[in-house]
Amino acid sequence: MALLEIEELRVGYGFPVLMGISFEVEEGETAVLFGLNGAGKTTTVSTIAGMLKPDGGAIRFDGSDIAGRPPTQLVRDGVALVPEGRRVFPALSVSNNLRLGSWTRRREQAEVDQRRQLVFDYFPRLAERADQAAGTLSGGEQQMLAIGRALMSKPRLLLIDEASLGLSPALAKTVFQVVKRINDDGVTVIIVEQNVGVLPYADRALIMEKGTLVFSGVGDEIRNANLRETYLGGGSE
Amino acid sequence: MGGLFSERRSLLIGIGATVALVVFLIVVGEEKSLVIGLTQGSAYGMVALGLALIYKSSGVFNFAQGEFGTVALYVLYLLDIKGNYWLAIIGALAAAGLMGFATERLVVRPLFEAPRVILLVATAGVALLAIGVELWFADAQAKPVAKAFSRNDRITVFDVQITDQRLWLIVTLAALAVLLGLFFTRTNLGLAIIGASQEPTATELVGISVRRLSSFTWVLAAVLGGLAAVIAIPDLGSFGPGAMTSNYLIPAFTAAVLGGMTSLPGAFVGGVLIGIIQSVATSAPLFQDGGELAIPGVPSTLIVFVVLLVVLVARPQGLLGKRA
What CATH number is associated with residue B96? Predict the structure, then answer.
């Protein structure tokens, strides 16, 4: 059984945006959701994370239907979203951002300390800036913090919306490498991306166009499909 | 680091302005105004703390803040007649908290997604409704309210006697400023309220219900409004419908703006400064009829509005606030 099953998912904002998409993500995979602006990628992950209510279809996480559950419940269930634009708490320190990330586990202090150490192992830069206000971090550091904050809730499924947006190619590569490490440590990951540089780290690729899924493939299917030329208009590295 | 530097600089500006004013008043022989202003300003500061708390957490200027206090006074009046004064105080604060909770649930929450100006008007509606109910209940008659502490001559500073009731107010405000400061920097709940005020979406995404935080914040602010009323008003001896709105809301609003609107220490400093400025304008010979700075026919209490306008034009982020 797949960890996440999306079936005929329909979502709209008064007008249809997702027109009945279906896909699955196996436990332990890194799936990448590609598509041009307006394809419906952010709507898809926002709906999975409970920020939007679906108009129809099913979202099953570990066999349970989670469609329409609020994000506060889904975080407890093991689903965490790193939103587009990072959305760190700017006036709070890096440490306090991570502390709020552990809200659902705040009564398990040993677990919280362990998670914070794990985040600092993934992103040593955050440990150096632990007392610094998040709003004063660089864009790359804020992305690291946003991912670290999501990891504090000990998710089984991590959704990252536009992981490399606004980052230099070198910094984007660093973020992708850390996401791969997080995945290797057992967290299932779905990354929304426009940067095909993430492909080497992907187990599964999903390509969206105008609210529909036009490609879904794993392993060699991804490498043989020539995704950049066929679907992404040349893409960006 | 720029943010931290800016925060420290703002704090230094606030402390510097207060110290400069204190030194100036001592030099020009207005020590009495200083002491009277400090006691009066403490009440403004406590109401301003509630205003800043709600503004900080939800971006709303709460016109009903004064009436949380007036309702508490009516409950204190009713319960004190029948029994123990301190139990009456607790009942009064509970009533204020209940009103804050009801306001959040019945007015603020249904308008959660509405523009802030709609919420602002809605809180004004709550205040007017409360005043209407008070008029109906009390028939516009002033009601007596007893002091918790009756001794008036324990402490004299610069020839001004500070009543025990006023001392209680000053100590409570200082303690509240410290406790709230610790609450917002050291506790998960306090950090969550700050987080929700900055990034409500991210707050939900870490598993925190922004709506539950909102209820808590309104109850806390309402209890602060109630506390200001049950400590400050008994020194006056009586109160009537809309007492806290008419006597304290505008100076407290000015104090919160002067302090920075989102800054809790700023509300404290702003309250004390407004109290002192108002006291000087009311009692200093310079501003009295025949004084060098007197404007014939214009009440000196208008100084509060002058300060409000000057701050809004010259430093809209206030002394301790941050530029938006």
Answer: 1.10.3470
- How many separate domains does chain A show? 1
Kindly give, in sequence order, each residue whose CB lies less than 8 Å from that of residue B1, ignoring residues fewer than 6 positions away: A132, A136
Query: A191 vs chain B: nearest CA distance in angstroms?
Result: 16
Contact residues, chain A to chain B, C-beta under 8 Å: 49, 51, 70-72, 75-76, 80-81, 83, 87-92, 96, 99-101, 103-104, 106, 132-133, 135-136, 149-150, 152-153
Q: Which residues of B116-150 are buried (b: 16+ CB within 10 A; e: fewer)?
A: eeebeebbeebbeebbeebeeeeeeeebebebeee
The ipTM assigned to this model is: 0.90
In degrees and rounded to multiples of 5, residue A206 shows phi and psi of -125, 130
What is the tens place of the pLDDT at every residue in A94-126? 999 999 999 999 999 999 999 999 999 999 999
Q: Which domain holds residue B146?
A: 2-314
Question: What pLDDT does residue B298 have?
Answer: 59
Contact of B2 with A136, CB cutoff 8 Å: yes
Question: Looking at the predicted structure, is the pLDDT value of residue B6 above 60?
Answer: no
Determine the average pLDDT of the residues in B199-228. 93
Give the total number of structural domains in chain B. 1
In a domain, A145, yes or no: yes
What pLDDT is attached to residue A196?
A: 81
pLDDT band of residue A237 (cuts 50, 70, 90) is very low
Q: What is the pTM of this model?
A: 0.82
The reply to whether A6 falls in a domain is no
Among the partner-chain residues B188, B202, B207, the one whose CB lies closest to the CB of A153 is: B207
Look at residue B323 and tell me if it is in a domain: no
Cα(B60)–Cα(B265) distance, integer angstroms? 19
- With CA atoms as reference, report the closest residue to B231 among B293, B174, B166: B166
A156 vs A178: CA distance, rounded Å: 16
Mean pLDDT of all residues in B96-103? 97
Token pair, residue B291, equals 């004084």
Do A27 and A74 meet the contact criterion of CB atoms below 8 Å apart?
no
User: Between A83, A90, A135, which is nearest B205 by CB?
Assistant: A83
At B322 the pLDDT is 62
pLDDT confidence bin for A42, thresholds 50/70/90: very high
In a domain, A108, yes or no: yes
Distance of CA A196 to the CA centre of its chain: 16
